[in-house]
Amino acid sequence: MEAASPSRTALRVAMRRAAHQIYDAHPLVFPDPLAVPILGAEYLPEVERTRFKLHKPHSVALRAHLVARSRYAEDLLARAVANGVSQYVLLGAGLDTFAYRNPFPQLHVFEVDHPATQQWKRDLLATNGIPIPSSLTYVPVDFEHQQLATQLAAAGFDTTRPAFFAWLGVVPYLTHAAFHSTLALIASCPSGSGVVMDYGQPRSALPYLEQLAHDSLASRVQLAGEPFQLFFTPPEMAAELSAFRALEDLGSGELNTRYFTGRSDNLKLMGSAGRIVSARL
Ligand SMILES: C[S@@+](CC[C@H](N)C(=O)[O-])C[C@H]1O[C@@H](n2cnc3c(N)ncnc32)[C@H](O)[C@@H]1O
């Protein structure tokens, strides 16, 4: 991504989480009382202006993927906290709002993000009157050019205590080298630590119609200055996670069954491109 500009994809996914709060039927899959306020007067009007587009089938399916991954991450986080985890690291936090509605008094949150995106988020929070809790530490890091371990340690991250990492909507934008070094850091954490991330399957692994949908999304993120560059098949991802146990790799079918059954609207995932995986140490 461009070094000096905030992530445009972070804004796009935050708009889709806000659209979920406004347009989708209740019960919501991912109720987030701060998803709308964080966009504020600057960005909320665009969610309203693009209402028509947000109801197109591909847009609905993409929104379903985004809310499912956030819901799944926070479900797993709650389980990790119940098992004693007290550090939550959001890698590529974007406009994620968990830290500002953190219900766990003992949980410290580290928001790691590209410096330009993080500064933009902090400005938005200030403009929109969302207070920064003392349980949150910002860690500005460019995964491609800086050592995450060094920056996290300097920010007070305790490598001797288990941590839960969420890496949502980030992996496809990284080089393999940056992915590897970050995963190695997570794998070096103590037993009880865990990670959740989503990833995309390579174009060649997709049926023809999904290849067209892939091309359309890939050209949109390329135009946003954040081209996709890293894909995995499920066996390749399992090999990357060989240091971990309790792997759970979910496709659309499993996520639909878990989170979208019995809905009165059409919100559900489609296709096989996007997957969400979690693992523990
Ligand atoms: C699609 S957004 C997802 C944001 C957030 N996780 C969410 O789900 O809303 C991608 C995020 O990855 C971050 N990112 C991409 N490349 C990065 C890099 N090289 N170093 C640090 N952050 C990066 C962007 O700044 C952005 O916040």
Could you report the average pLDDT, rounded to the nearest whole number?
94
Q: Using the alpha-carbon principal axes, give the shape.
A: globular
Quickly count the helices: 10
Q: What is the string of SSEs from the N terminus onward?
A: HHHHEEHEHEHEHHEHE
Total count of strands: 7
What spatial order of strands do you see in the largest sheet?
Answer: 3-2-1-4-5-7-6
Strand content: 5-15%
Heterogens: S-adenosylmethionine
Report the structural category: alpha/beta
Helix content: 40-55%
N- and C-termini, Cα separation: 31 Å
Q: Which stretches of 5+ consecutive residues score pLDDT under 50? A: none
In short:
With 281 residues, the chain is an alpha/beta fold.
Q: What would your notes on this structure say?
A:
The protein is of the alpha/beta class and 281 residues long. 42% of the residues lie in helices and 14% in strands. The protein is built from ten helices and seven strands. The chain has helices at residues 8-23, 40-49, 51-54, 57-82, 115-127, 148-154, 176-187, 208-223, 234-240, 252-259; strands at 87-91, 108-113, 136-140, 164-167, 194-200, 245-250, 274-280. A seven-stranded mixed sheet has the order 3-2-1-4-5-7-6. Strand 2 (108-113), helix 5 and strand 3 (136-140) form a beta-alpha-beta unit. The longest helix is centred in the N-terminal third of the chain and has 26 residues, at 57-82. The protein is globular. Bound molecules: S-adenosylmethionine. S-adenosylmethionine is lined by residues 1, 7, 9-10, 13-14, 92-96, 113-114, 117, 141-144, 168-170, 173.
